[in-house]
Amino acid sequence: MKIERPRGTRDFLPEEMEKRREIERKMRKIAELYGYREIQTPTFEHLELFTLKSGEGIIEEIYAFKDKGGRNLALRPELTAPVMRMFVNECSVMPKPLRFYYFANCFRYERPQKGRYREFWQFGVELIGSSSYLADAEVISLAYDIMENLNLKFDLHIGHVGLLRLLLKDVEENVASKIMRLIDKKDSKGLEDYLNTISIDRDLEGKIYDIIELIGDRSIIEDAKGIIPNFDFEYIEKLCDCLDSIDVKYNLDFGIARGLDYYTGVVFEAYAKEGLGAQNQICGGGSYRLAHLFGVDTPSTGFALGFDRIAEICELQAEKPKVVAIVAFKGLENEAFKISRIVREAGVDAIVDVMQRSLKKQLSYANDIKADFAIIVGEEELKQKSVAIKDLKTGEQKIVKIDELRDYLKSV
Question: How many Å apart are CA 324 and CA 344, to the nearest integer?
Answer without folding.
Answer: 9
